[in-house]
Design goal:
It is built from 20 helices and 10 strands. The protein folds into 4 domains: 103 residues, 2-Layer Sandwich (GMP Synthetase, Chain A, domain 3), CATH 3.30.300.180; 164 residues, Rossmann fold, CATH 3.40.50; 68 residues, Orthogonal Bundle (Helicase, Ruva Protein, domain 3); 99 residues, Orthogonal Bundle (Chromosomal Replication Initiator Protein Dnaa, Chain: A). Bound molecules: adenosine-5'-triphosphate (ATP). Keywords: ATP-binding, Cytoplasm, DNA replication, DNA-binding, Lipid-binding, Nucleotide-binding.
Amino acid sequence: MSSEASAVWNECLRVIEQHVSEQSFSTWFKPINPVKLEGTSLTIQVPSQFFYEWLEDNYIQELKLAIKTVLGQSGRLEYAVVVDRGNSANQPYVVSYPQGNHGNKKANVTSSDAQDQKKSPFQMESLGDEMLTQSNLNPNYTFSTYIEGDCNRLARSAGFAVATKPGITSFNPLMVYGGVGLGKTHLVQAIGNEIKNGPEDKFVLYVSSEKFVNQFMDSIKDGNVKSFTNFYMQVDVLIIDDIQFLAGKDRTQEMFFHIFNHLHQSKKQIIMTSDCPPRDLKGLEERLLSRFKWGLTADLQMPDFETRVAIIRRKMQSEGIFIPDDVVEYLAYTVDTNVRELEGILISLIAHASLNRVEIDLQLAKAVMKNIIRDIETEVGIDFIQKTVSEYFGIELDDLKAKTRKKEIVIARQVAMYFSKEFTNHSLKSIGYHFGGRDHSTVIHALTTVNDMMDTDTNFKNSVNELKKKFKMRSY
Ligand SMILES: Nc1ncnc2c1ncn2[C@@H]1O[C@H](COP(=O)(O)OP(=O)(O)OP(=O)(O)O)[C@@H](O)[C@H]1O
């Protein structure tokens, strides 16, 4: 190592130190060795191709600034990457970037070893999205933007505990599972952001399982497995999304098993998500599954109506738009599949309104919704009420009209009559007619019974209210 190169690099480090966190500085800049200085071109040696890619993806601005400050406008930076070749001696090859060409992955590679040029480097996929930071975290996914409800209370509070004391609570690993679009990624990234922005300087890394698998495969192809493993073993908080993707990928599972053990033993935090509970994860090794159960497993459910309203309002706030209450309610009633879909519909609604320069109102919401969800019924008729009520109580539609006097059928029939009175313009006589030709006094008796039961039986009242929401939504 030339002493000139050392002196220049030390100056560069002083500049860099002022612009990155202490943890990043020791992880990404301390391991670098200055190799040589030729004119205003400084060559630094980095431990692996991955390390080099990481620097280029995440610290290009800091490096540029340092080189320009120390070597002037004509300053250049070249990298010598130590290639891991198992037992054979490490031969560096040089990746050379002309000034101002940093970050261009197609830049010339001049190698001291022709073979190495052809190797596709083990690299983190380009992060692309400027929203992502060096931990691959979306800064918008925070606890403050994550609406709490019965659907996520346990997972959220466990997540918050982990964020406060990563690696120390008994929630290690923390496994969050739930159906598509229910907020798994948002929650685990909120934990990551909370830790990253906290007082301790922790290296937090979020990675999808798919990316993890691809990186591992690339590392095998490139003979870089060691640097892959070393990299993951340095992490303080590893967040790995959609773990079900590891199913059937035995080699990756084995590697993950070692990384998991190392991190867990070193009291580093592991957070995972999955689309199903660990017991239903097919194609995952038993030893891995048993480790997943060491910590806490918490599920996410579809948010209830009130939580959906709160999610819509939060989204409106972040988009800086106003939507009338009846539209918010309409959307929350109608979209009960998952939160991503709810957000998607809200965004289409906003887009329609701004493209057509019209106000967002119920009419527009219905029109947008009709395009998206087929078969949506906008009117409540007796047929619809009968169908919905019979499905809800798990009885045959025909039984509502039949003579049978079985208790559960009588109740369902009375409830259906009650809603027919509330949501349609049919007379008592007509309602009776639609329920197997009963007379109007039977309908009156049904209405009285339902009202009385709602006063005395909370479960029954909840069922009626739940059904009411379905009808209300369609009667807008
Ligand atoms: N409780 C919540 N509060 C606020 N926003 C939420 C909530 N739950 C989900 N979202 C939003 O819903 C969208 C989908 O969430 P996310 O991507 O986290 O779901 P996921 O469960 O990881 O989905 P997938 O199964 O496809 O990986 C995101 O925009 C997220 O911000």
